[in-house]
Amino acid sequence: MKPSRTSFHVTPLTARPTGHRTQDTLDRGLRVAVEFAPDADATVGRISGDIDVLAAPSFALALAHLTDGGSSSRIIVDMTAVDFVGTSGLSILSEFAESARRQHITWVLAGNRAVLRPVEAIGLDAVIPTCLTVRDAFDRVGKIAHS
């Protein structure tokens, strides 16, 4: 893993034989799991916890990790277990959307009300495709990729 430019570190907790990698911040409750879904040719980043100003560097690193290595041109960011997204998290999502567009990556954000409400309130839903469930996100990422 590339070192972060900040002093905030993300450390691996477990390595599962199924290809799942889980990471947790050292001093916050933000959890990140990255997995590859070969049947859908997609990478899924599962984020949980609060994305506030303290967790923002770890969140940015986790999203950057999803696009590193180019293992998939389809990404689902599962934030259905996120309880809070602050302005710093929204800014990072906006930057990720632009980066994904430049890299020709098809992606969808699956989120609950705590995530989707602020995304919609500031108009990010115009540049970020959103869904309420991961299942819907798989369907949508497939449709976007084929259009």
UniProtKB/TrEMBL annotation:
Pfam families: STAS. PROSITE patterns: STAS (PS50801). Coiled coil: none annotated. Residues 32-141 form the STAS domain. Residues 1-22 are annotated as: Disordered. This is Anti-sigma factor antagonist. The gene is rsbV.
